[in-house]
Structures are given as structure tokens and as C-alpha cells.
Design goal:
The protein has 356 residues and is an alpha+beta fold. It has 8 helices and 14 strands.
Amino acid sequence: MADLVDPAPDLSGWSCPLPLRDHPMVVMGHGGGGALSAELVQHLFAPAYGGPEMAALGDSAVLTMGGARIAFSTDSYVVRPLFFPGGSIGDLAVNGTVNDLAMSGAVPAYLSCAFILEEGTELASVGRVAQAVGAAARAAGVAVATGDTKVVDAGHGDGVYLNTAGIGLVPPGVDIRPQRAAPGDVVIVSGPIGLHGVAIMSVREGLEFGAEVESDTAPLAGLVQAMLAVTPQLHALRDPTRGGLATSLHEIAGASGTGVVLDERSVPVPEAVAAACGFLGLDPLYVANEGRLVAFVPREHAEAVLDAMHAHPHGRGAAVVGECVADHPGLVVARTGLGGTRIVDLPLGEQLPRIC
């Protein structure tokens, strides 16, 4: 009878060209920055594109051209509504791309900006978005060097979508990427979390939480340069946008093969964000941010880096929220306020879709 039993198959060389979950159609979760997004990139797009440049899967790709190290990033913005407390799709597009470049330590220099407009959209609204793009670029110290405009039929868009791409120079001696996070690193977040997601939610759903919550959208390149002035040995940076702080920590833990221990009591959560999340049954760790970063810093430099962050306008609320450990590689574990621990799972998708 033993001869009739097939030997166990060797799975070591198998690969799956499509997302692992049984979704024959695109669902909103594929754009939410969680597990579904990761599967889409890792099992569909990356194998189709090929090449080592995609392997790092960072916020931007760092490429070498003519002896210079250049960071290159692109992103699309489909946020609804176009205008919200603290910003607009225009601010978001510029700051988001600038921040993606900054997370590799680059000094952003140039952006492209493409407008996809729906037929019937008021030109006054398009003008407001364009003005916001220009103002945000000037504030971030970058130039919008090229762009494009397309129009789609009425009913086949949502007013205005934007696509931006950016390039910047990475200074010599700087090597910031998620794979460099190491046991002993201190985890620092640059300020209160959850503001952007709650600001969008309040406008979109017509909710009030006792005080107006404004988006934290802001350019972070200046903050990163202030941190690098202390030491070029920053290991990893991430701006916790879609999927929030929890997703960024998961991405870095997975890329570096380390574990992360998060102290929930140390995570700065504004009172209004905590109230909104409690009312809606959401976890602030998964709520999107657009003007925050999380840094993995060698312990010997952490105090000086934290001081430099506190001296910068976009880092005044910075706080140590955890550490990188050798235990439970690839997992994020949170110490709760009650003294227990829990695993912080990677979400399937965004709790609130289309927040950027």
C-alpha cells in the first residue's frame, strides 16, 4: 500500500502569480495598504515587472545614475472629499510624494503632477487644487517640473484624481531601508497619530467628535534632514499612511526579520482621535497619517535624535513608542495598558478607504 501513496510535493520552488486570497475581482481592500495590497504587489505586480529595483519595496526606490544616488517615487491620490479640514488632495499629493522620498533620506528636488479630471467638474475646484499643489510644493522646497492632464467621461471619475512622481538626491553615507532595522533599535514616532484618517471620516460621514480634527498633512524632508544631522546611521524610516502605524511596523519587521515590541501607553493618540475611534470601534494604530514618520534608530543615538525632532516644527510631539527585538521575527507585539500583551495583526485593508 505504501507504493500507492504519492510522496509529499516539494513546494520550495513554487510561486503564485496572483494574490493568494480568493478574490477573482479587485476589491477596495486591494488599495488599503494592508495584507491584500501587499499580496497584490508581491504576487502580481513584482513578478510581472521583474528586476531588483522592486525587491526592496520601500517608499521610494534608490537608484544609482552617473555616480549619484537618486530616490524615485510615484503615487496616485483619489481621496474623497477633495477638500477637508487641514488640507486638500493637492497638499496631500505633494506632501505624500515628498515624504516617500524623505523616507530614504533623500533631499526632494522635482515633482511631476498629472491631473485626471471628470467631465463636468467645476473649473473653480480644479483651480483650487492646482493652487494647493503649487503652494505645497513651494513650502516643501520642490519644483513641479512637468505634468499631464486627462479628462474622463462624466460618471467615470470622482472630480479630480492626481498622480505625482518625485526625484531627490540621497546624501553620501546614508543608507535607510526597512531591511536595516536591527534588534536594539529604538522605535520613535514623530507625533500624534490618527489625525488624517479621522479628519477625512468626520467630513465624509458628517460626524462630530466634540472638536474639529484637522489632517496632519505636512512635508517631512526637513525633519529627516535634522535627524540625519545628528547621525547618518538611521536604520529605517516609514511614513505611516494607509494602514497606519501598525502596518508600517509590520512592513519593517517583515523586511528585517526582526520583532517589534510596542508600548501602547506611549503611543501619542489625541483625545479627539481616541474618542472617534472608541465611538466607531476602530483602532488608532490602523488609522492613516499624512504628516508623521516612524523611525528605527540605534539605541546609542536615540536620545540625541529625539531631541533634534523635538526642536523641529514637525517633530515636537515625537515619542519613543517601542523597540526592535530578536524575538518573534516578523511580528509586532503590543504591551497593553493593563500589563498584558497582544499581537498587532496586519489588516486586510484600510478601515476607511480612499483616505489618500
